[in-house]
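Final report, results section. Input specification for complex C-07:
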Amino acid sequence: MVSDMGYTTVKKKIKAFFSPTSSEAEMAVLQESFRTRYQSFRVLLTANNTALELMAEMEQALVLGQPFGMAFVRGHCTAASVNVYKMIQSLQVLSDGKYNGLFSSFKDISEKMEEILARQPDVPEGKLVVPLSQVGKDDADLVGDKMANLGEVRNRVGLKVPEGFVITATATQRFMRASGLQDEINRLLKKLDIDDLESLYSTSAQIQKLISFAPLPRELAQEIEEHYELLYSTGQPHPLISMRSSAMEEDKSNVSFAGQYRTQLNISEDFILQTYKDIVASKYQSQAIIYRNQRGFRHQDVIMCVGCMTMVDAVVSGVMFSRSPRNPRSSWVEINAAHGLASQVVVGSVDTDFYKVERESPNKAMQQDVAGGSPLLSIDRLRILAQIAVRLEEHFGVPQDIEWSFDRNGDVIILQSRPLAQPGETESETDEQMSVGHDDSVLLSGGLTASAGVASGPVFVVRSNVDLLEFPIGAVLVVEHSLPEWATLLNRAVAVVSEKGHVATHLAIVAREFGIPAIFGLSDAVRKLENGVVVTVDATGRFVYSGRNEEILKRKVSRPNLMADSPVYLLLSEIMSLVTPLNLTDPGSPYFKSSYCKTLHDVTRFCHEKAVTEMFSFGEKARYDARSAKQLGGDIPFQWWVIDLDDGFREGFDTHGKYVHMQDIVSEPMLAIWEGMTAKPWQGPPPLSIKGFGSVLFRSTMNPSLEPSVGTSMGMKNYFLISKNFCNLSMRLGYHFTLAEAYLGSHLTENYVSFQFRGGAADRSRRFVRVFLLKDILEHFGFRVEVKHDALTARIEKKEKEKLIEGLKVLGYLLIHTRQIDMAMGEQDKVDQYRQTITSDLESILSPDSMVG
Amino acid sequence: MEKKINILLIDDEEDFLEITAKRLARRGYEVRTALSCGEGISEFESGPVDVVVLDVMLPDKDGIQCLKEIKMLFPSTAVILLTGHASMEAGLECMDSGASDYCLKPVEFDDLVDRIEIVYRDMKSQGSCSS
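Structure output:
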């Protein structure tokens, strides 16, 4: 967009124009250069519009708590900085290269942003494989949280865990580097549309295949084999092992990553290396990609480590919580148990016994729900488990979620201990009781509260992965088993109902984390709930009602902000300190310089201000030209000057005179502002109380620059800078400086209305009251408003012309009618009175019946 | 529309190309498509191109390289970059290499149409200014 015409050429031509020998030809040159400037000015305005919109989207992302990934952060940083850069380029063209300093300020800002974006996780260079006997809690950076905790259980708490070793983060990094796959994986991930399930599944499968088929570095394979052979000494040779994912950032109390990665059991010697690669690949399972996106993790920060342990010959296994996951103050331990291996319990594929055991000795059993026949756990075993749960909680300092097994010797083996995922809302203990269902609308009742809360939506039954692809956003997920892979749908489902499963399954843990109501163990759900039928799920009371039950839905609480404090969230917050804060608020300040631009917002503000000034002074200098400032003639209050940038006067208008009249103006935004200004007669300044008058006098004497006669040439008068689609009005009436600007084109992308307001004669508190009154009114009429001290900025962008014309009328009215009301802002009843008058005036101006001439 | 704007879409995603081309044609634009930079450049031989919509990640050539080539061979063609994932450095380099606009993918169709119209108008008026 940079014009072919060099700055110096333009300058020479302008100079020539102002020399006494100016001719018609030179006049044409001037007009041409004016048009070039005006075009750059327009490009600058559009880039400003886009940049501000992108910045607002970035801010919104932090406030709303909706999930966003690194693609959003990177994309927005690039797009915002590109548009700001475009503004600088355009300003350089229209100012003849006057603001070179901007490039270095911008470079400083963008380099700092890039530095934050490029940060890589800090992986310690350590051993490739470490025996579990040498692992403790502090090794999480090397062996992942899961294995670090298990090492701690073995080596510091002194409980029995299976023998084994961990393939470390260093090993995985070496494997991935050697494979050379990371670029290809990044490319696939960048192209992925996370909301499109089909694309998610195919990308996930593609990446996993790449990793599973990549060759393992020789030295790594060798080390794994050597450590495996060391296990021979623990029992029989060639033992079968379990291989468990242990990722960085996993197993934190508020982000569990429960069931997101693969665990493989009964692996024989020949398959260890392949299984290792499969588990590394499982970092890209679809549910894990979704989970990281929902919880604000960068894929690159998650490095997979793999724990390899001898299989436990388990008789009975299960999961226990040192406190109720739905009530962190509970005084009991909750235990789920099933025959055989613990893994069946966490994936929710078997029915389990459920026990509640008191935490305090003698650890009395408070409740026993037995799945079949006789209980799997004796009183003695329940006591042993409860004591272990309390001990682990004490050691780690937070409630724990523990996987355990009893082996054939009757020993307890701990397979995992991690912080218990806590729900956002805490419930009273009575929530465990079923609340009384009323009326015939109850379709199903009973089961377990896997995750408390209420929600409503159409039923969607998922039986297979094929159904999964069709799952609509906002539906109630109905399944037979609470399998971990259904977690892929938890960013789309409003509630989950499962026939099988219990509170200890991975799906339940993730549902609680995401704040999605879930009832598990509700028999017949698949048969009784029909696809497409709207139901209300009350997971707290354990009811499913037909239709939308508003009474129940009143109890709905807002979902937790899953992004807050996540790595991606923190990274964006850090970047935002280089994007949105506005330091350059006062163009009259000595600090309003390019070298003081510390953020992208500062740069946009600076470029915009200087661009307007350039356009203005160019118009003002051309005294004898058609572009010179004309005074607005006719019987009108105050004095106004108009500068035509391009086509703001009607065709055929004689530009030689000193005056222009309203009927000669064809600038649509100016006409709209004018309509707002003149729609209601001005009542004059408000009557002053003695106190209010005193404060005005005081401020005038303290700050002589506030005297209108002392201002700059631009400040002394009220100017309209116009074209057919554009209007910039700068106004300094009395003690206020205001700027209203708009572009009304046929393309939404270019359209906006903006407003800046600063100053006032009264003391600070009165000025603040007025600024907030203005804020309320402007927000009411659809403006996005920001207030800093006594300065206010407001914008509407990318809306249809009609909407913007309304906004301009509002501004026109406010410019005239709120000029001096800050003097009366000391009294609350006056403020309310003004608010009322203003709002009703504006509504009558904007009502379709009002035909204001 | 006084004159039909000639648009060339260069992107390696076939689905995107097909759908976008169809929708643009429905709005009255002359649209051609290319799956690679090389293919795109040879499209210039078959007729005038006013606006190129270019994906930054192309199989045969880096998008920025492609942009530079187009701007060198056909300086009066406006180029809009369409990408979700260029780094800041790459984005700024695109602006220095003469890109007219930069859009984030996925782009709203109406926004894309607006931007095509705007860069076309600006390119035309710039031509008339400096001619």
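The longest helix of chain B spans residues 109-130. The longest strand of chain B covers residues 78-83. This concludes the modelling results for the funded period.
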